[in-house]
Amino acid sequence: MDVVRKPGRGGLRSAGAPDDDPFPVRGMDAIVFAVGNAKQAAHYYSTAFGMTLVAYRGPENGHRESASYVLESGGARFRSDDRRVG
Question: What's the pTM value of the predicted model, to 2 decimals?
Answer without folding.
Answer: 0.66
